[in-house]
Amino acid sequence: QVQLVESGGGLVQAGGSLRLSCAASGRTFSSYHMGWFRQAPGKEREFVAAIRWSGISTAYADSVKGRFTISRDNAKNTAYLQMNSLKPEDTAVYSCAARTARGGEPLTRSPSSYDYWGQGTQVTVSS
After folding, report:
1. Per-residue pLDDT of the chain (127 residues; tens, 9 = 90+)
2. Which of 52, 16, 45 minimizes the C-alpha distance to 112?
3. Which of 23, 73, 79, 105 is the most buried (most CB within 10 A)?
């Protein structure tokens, strides 16, 4: 089992940047692919980005591609989401999630495929 704690959220003006962190404890962090998801009020949770356990490959939602970057530091048991050129529509609660790595499977964008979740951190982008 792994415990996940997000940090780095806050209030930022449109065009600004934030970096979210997801600190993991428990089992070996490198055993998990990591994902970031977000949920705005009244909307379903949506995929933002994912990164393979090794960090070799990543995946992004079209809405954030070119603006957000997911990364990880397995030595620090931490995943990151660098968010640049933020827009008001990026406002949401952002949560990180871990999926147990299973062989050579591709990264998944489905929330139900992730095994563990953090509590989330609020990101608010003002216009």
Report:
1. 899 999 999 999 999 999 999 999 987 999 999 999 999 999 999 999 999 999 999 999 999 999 999 999 999 999 999 999 999 999 999 999 999 998 788 899 999 999 999 999 999 999 9
2. 45
3. 79
